[in-house]
Amino acid sequence: SLGTQTDYRDGEAQTDPYSPEYIVTSGSVPELLTLATLTWGRGLPAGLAEVEMIERAREKRAWEAALPAMDSPSQITKRKKMMDEMERKEWVFREQEIEELQEVQLEVLKKLLRRREESQNELNAKRLHDQWQNHQKAKEEKIKKIQHGCALLLRKLIAKRKNVLGKLERRGIFKEYTDFSARTDAPLSRIGFSPDNHSDCYVVKNFYLNTFAGLCELEASLPRSVTQVKIKAPKPNRLTKSGFLRRSARLEMDLALVHQ
């Protein structure tokens, strides 16, 4: 299955290349043993630096084989001169290696500095944006406050202009209730709470009052005495206790006579 192939794939089961045991015969130094310090992941597979190291090792072995024997003073002088030249070459090569390593370190340091500068620039840009947003918010609040004050002053000036002479006027209650544009019928919301703003909360929404089925059910639940009212006509009592005719009866007689 796919799960089994994922668990036991070749990539996870791969190990380091096998290095067999070896035996060196006495009196022989194989060239391959010079690479014994290189292992998989640490020099192997060989790159350009490893190839250059191998070439230098070969050149050094050839140079050691070409050194003159120390059997005469002239040969000793020649040998010392060759060794001094080789030492100078080694120092030059070492200096080149140090310079290359310093260049690599310098490039890494430049990348780190560039990355830190970019992150610092992003942080500064974010801080500037936040400050700009705060200033914009403060500016809008200040503008809103100024506009509110300006509207208040304009209303005061308009009210003052209506009464230029400064005469005191009495409150006209009849005028307030007859004028539908007055504050009584149309109050301003800025002065206080207007009940018309939330008048929907006082609307009664009832199933028994808003639907026909509810009305029928409500009517069926009421007693018969509510729907079928029996009215007893009162008997006319036209005479008083003393035997005289009441004034209401006399007025009814007069109205009936006038009507005829």
Automatic annotation (TrEMBL):
The keyword S-adenosyl-L-methionine does not apply. Its main location: cytoplasm. GO terms for cellular component: axoneme. It holds the Pfam family CFAP91. The keyword Cytoplasm applies. Keywords: Cell projection, Cytoplasm, Cytoskeleton. It is found in: Cytoplasm, Cytoskeleton, Cilium axoneme. It comes from the Eukaryota. InterPro entries: CFAP91, CFAP91_dom. Residues 4-156 form the CFAP91 domain. Belongs to the CFAP91 family. This is Cilia- and flagella-associated protein 91.
